[in-house]
Amino acid sequence: MSVIADSRRSADVPGLARILAGLHLDGLLLTSLAAVMAIGLLALYSSVGQNTWLVVNQVTRMGAALVAMLALAQIDPAWLRRVSPWIYGAGLGLLVMVLLSGDVGKGAQRWLDLGVRFQPSEIMKLGVPMMLAWLLHDRPLPPSFGMIITSLVLVLAPVALIALQPDLGTAIMITASGAAVIFLAGIGAWYMIGAATVALVSLPALWYFVMHEYQKKRVLTLFDPDSDPLGAGYHIIQSKIAIGSGGLFGKGWLNGTQSQLEFLPERSTDFIFAVIGEEFGLMGALAVLLIYLLIVGRGLYIAATAQDTFGRLLAGSISLTFFFYAFVNTAMVTGLLPVVGVPLPLISFGGTSMVTLLAGFGILMSIQTHRKLLAR
Amino acid sequence: MATSLRIKDTWAEQRLFLRRAVLSGLLVFGLSTLVVGRLAQLQIAQYDYFSAQSQGNRIRVQPTPPQRGLIFDRNGEVLAENVPSYQLELTPEQVPDVEDTLIRLAAAGLIEADELQEIRSLIASHRRFDAVPIRTRLSDETVARFAVQRPRFPGVEIRARLTRSYRLGPAIAHAIGYVGGISAQDRRELDESDYAGTSLVGKVGIERSYEDALHGDVGHAEVLVNARGRQMQVLDSDAPVPGRDLVLTLDAETQLAAWEALGGRRGAVVAIDPRNGEVLALISAPAYDPNAISSGLTRKAFRALQEDPDRPLFNRALRGAYPPGSTIKPILGLAGLTRDAIDPDRQVYCVGFFQLPGKSHRYRDWKRGGHGLVDMHDAIAESCDVYFYELADELGINRMAEFLRRFGLGATTGIDVPGEKFGLVPDPQWKRATFSRREDQPWYPGETVIAGIGQGYLLATPLQLAHATATIAARGERFQPTLMKGYRLSGSGATTAGEPTRLPRVGVDNDSDWDRIISAMNAVLQSDRGTARAVGMDAPFTMAGKSGTAQVFTVAQDEEYDSEEIEERMRDHALFIAFAPLEAPRIAVAVIIENGESGSRVAAPVARAVMETYLGSTL
User: Can you give the residue range of the structural domain that contains A296?
Assistant: First the structure.
């Protein structure tokens, strides 16, 4: 039984830490996640007009997500590694099914009804980095040209299917999670420069052949929101007013006029960061950002100290993707990026993304806590 | 192993990963700094700007319309008031299917089917949560009928709103006027901000001329609104100042008596207090119902009023210009005395016609065979035309015109009701300027002759005639006619007093000239030979008057050919002017009845009824 051991610290630290270790949970990560979710519930209560039922609904979802996290934390990363290709394959199959027979929600086909309605694209948020980490884990790094091409195909296949739904936000985030794996795997600088060049060159093609009219409009209004103040520019104008008028310390909880009087659209979902900025001010917004950084930092630390390549790549990708969620959302709400449908992680009201996110952190905790004593 | 196959170097890979992780960390830090910088920019640097933006977003200033002032008669009787009336209102937001609801409402007879198009555009012009009035002034029966079917029409409700009510109805219409919806033209003339929230504005009559006072001052409420403009909370408000209550010079009883005395005939009555110019009655018949017109007539009903050949919308008292006929004789007589054109005791032998020297045309007297020997007294009392033909010839048109203008003829009196006409006092200069054809331009002596009996080009409005009569009654003192007595003070109920506006006095050479004329006018009603003795002999008070009969020389332009109708409309207009009591006149009246044929038989009884009612109530 010498190969199997508990966390390194379980022997030294008594009490709470022992319980956490027994549950394969990471204390710092758990605390930070709980803090973000608590702030999120406060902001949500305010933004839904103090509708307790909706808050309870969100709490239920958080509970389910925490259960998913706890479950994944128990699974040995080695086992996770073995099932990675199967998860990826299943996700790809479901994405095809969505396109063939999906339900339409908010004008886009994203939902699949298999007893429970869910978005298969959520599976791919974890499925893609797992697949790439599996692909690269026993190959010499930095990856060869062939591996890079294979990885790109594995990323772009589901991304293309998701972009067709169309769900630009998720497509971008999954691309980012794949890119994170390849980057962390040590891809050479020239490859990166090349990829960046290709991306820049393909932008016009993307603009003219792939992007939908509403997506183009969102990009255009980013640069000039006043060109369409009641249409596409309305979101961003009202969001900036909400944040700006919050000032240093905010208007106070439940006192944000932009949100309470319904000037701010999507205030409980994609634009909830504007509610935080309005009611809690710069201080509140910074606090949220700080906790996010703490989570990302802890994630990168876990990745850096992971024992094998699969764990390192997967943990690193999950952490960076989480950060990109937070960054894209806050940048979008503050008018730095175009309006893409990316929720504020762990805070925005809504379904599957919460479960996926915490499932990801479950994997991180599993990587952190299932350590084997290795002979160096 | 071949060189092409690389060996997995775990240690090197770990170092590589660490470098990448650190690089990622730097990237994370860099991007976070970007967001923090942006937040600082929005929340610190541009705080003032966005703070103001959010204030502007949520606070709206909403107008609170004032209540319109009431209108009273001189004795405190209410002439115009605001009463609640029921209207059907539809709130589009609450209606599942607006079109279907409208069609069902029309089918149930609750709205007019031919107004559907107007209602649709009315609804389209309102916000979704505004209640749109789709039918005004519901009868009790309609209210009841709707109440029964109410569950069938969600989003449709009955509301009580204040509308204008005129108790005397058509009898007072042309004096007070009416209110109506604010038109695009009204908007150009009014201060928009004062009328924000107000839906009715004075259109004609007193309602229009005293619009500013009646309207009051709009109040405001600062309200908190949400993104859809729905009112959430009132933050601050200043109450509207209600319009001022007007007290008019009209006497409701006299007004009604005059209306009834006209008995549905076309015509006008104006009664003035000679001592101060206060208008005691002002009637134009036929009239419209100001209640109906104020609540908004359908286009069809309004067109019917406009196209009515009797022209009920036309204010004859102020805008009807009629030849004054023989009612002008007392003034011309006075002109003759003042200008020394005639010796009052000189007698003229009336043979029944008059001829200009060297001309064969005979200007006929109304009485075949003539009046025999008459002096000025007889000529007025019996209305001898020949005497006045001769007088006119001797005075000449310029001196006549100058004297008539002194009595206010040919000019507006300045009454405080808009729309008054000038009438016409013709002279050679006017004729040159008016007629374009050269052969029409010279003034002919014959035109002077017929002006002597108030015919020809001479035109006067009933108001001008009443004003001139009041001037005779007051022996030359003239006051600008007014309908406004003052404002009713809300506390005491007292009326603010205004000074009458004096106009230039009519001076005569000898004060006894007035006595002569007034005595002759008294003889018209209260002597054996007076033309209107049948009306005046049994009166309980002394009075003076003069009958007139004006030839109608234009045929009414009826579209349908109706021989009886046209014949009726070609008959002479009947006129009568009078004042009473003789010793200290308190009322002067002018009556005109279109196509009434005889001034003394048809118009004089109306004048007497008006004077009797007024004097009877104030004795």
Answer: 8-369
By three-state DSSP, how is residue B322 classified?
Answer: strand
CB of B44 within 8 Å of a chain A CB? The answer is yes
Query: How far apart (Å, rounded) are the C-alpha atoms in residues B476 and B514?
Result: 8
Tell me whether residue A77 is in a domain.
yes
Strands B245-248 and B71-72, how do they pair?
Answer: parallel
Question: B106 Cβ partners below 8 Å, 6+ apart?
Answer: B112, B113, B116
* Residue extents of the structural domains in chain B: 62-148+155-248, 252-574+585-618
How far is C-alpha A251 from the chain's CA centre? Answer: 29
Could you say which of A140, A245, A331 has the minimum Cβ distance to residue B51?
A245
| Residue A268 included in any domain | yes
Stated length of chain B: 619
Sign of CA dihedral B282, B286, B292, B294: negative
* Rounded distance between C-alpha atoms, residue B417 and residue B175, angstroms: 8
Query: Quick check: B44 and A282 CB within 8 A?
Result: yes
Inter-residue contact A278 to A42 (CB < 8 Å): no
Asked if A120 and A112 touch (Cβ cutoff 8 Å), the reply is yes
| Count of domains forming chain A | 1
Return the top range by mean pLDDT from B24-28, B114-118, B181-185, B563-567: B24-28
Residues of B in contact with A286 (CB under 8 A): 36, 39
Number of Cβ within a 10 Å radius of residue A90: 15
Q: How far is A99 from chain B (nearest CA, A)?
A: 35
Q: Is B326 tagged catalytic?
A: yes
Average pLDDT over residues B356-362: 83
CATH 3.30.1490.20 holds for B62-148+155-248 = no
Q: Is residue A1 part of a domain?
A: no
pTM: 0.62
Could you say which of A262, A282, A289 has the minimum Cβ distance to residue B226? A262
- Name the one residue in this structure whose structure tokens are 């005491």: B492
Query: Residue A247: what pLDDT?
Result: 92
Please report whether residue A212 resides in a domain. Answer: yes
Segment B105-115 mean pLDDT: 83
SS (H, E, C) chain A: CCCECCCHHHHCCCCHHHHHHHCCCCHHHHHHHHHHHHHHHHHHHHHCCCCHHHHHHHHHHHHHHHHHHHHHHHCCHHHHHHHHHHHHHHHHHHHHHHHHHCEEECCEEEEEEECEEECHHHHHHHHHHHHHHHHHHCCCCCCCHHHHHHHHHHHHHHHHHHHCCCCHHHHHHHHHHHHHHHHHCCCCHHHHHHHHHHHHHHHHHHHHHHCCHHHHHHHHHHHCHHHCCCCHHHHHHHHHHHHHHHCCCCCCCCCCHHHHCCCCCCCCCCCHHHHHHHHHHHHHHHHHHHHHHHHHHHHHHHHHCCCCHHHHHHHHHHHHHHHHHHHHHHHHHCCCCCCCCCCCCCCCCCCHHHHHHHHHHHHHHHHHHCCECCCC
Nearest CA-CA distance, residue A244 and chain B, Å: 4
B34 vs A336: CB contact, 8 Å cut-off?
yes
User: What is the predicted ipTM?
Assistant: 0.90
Express each pLDDT in B225-281 by its tens digit. Answer: 766 666 777 777 888 888 999 999 999 999 999 999 998 899 999 999 999 999 999
Q: Does B225 touch chain A (CB under 8 A)?
A: yes
Query: What mean pLDDT do residues B17-32 have?
Result: 94
B62-148+155-248 and B252-574+585-618 share one CATH topology? no
Residue from the list A185, A258, A277 with its beta carbon closest to the beta carbon of B39:
A277
Q: What is the pLDDT of residue B555?
A: 39
Burial of A353 (0-12, 13-18, 19+ CB in 10 A): buried
Q: Do B40 and A262 touch (CB under 8 A)?
A: no
CATH of domain B252-574+585-618: 3.40.710.10
Strand partners, B482: B278
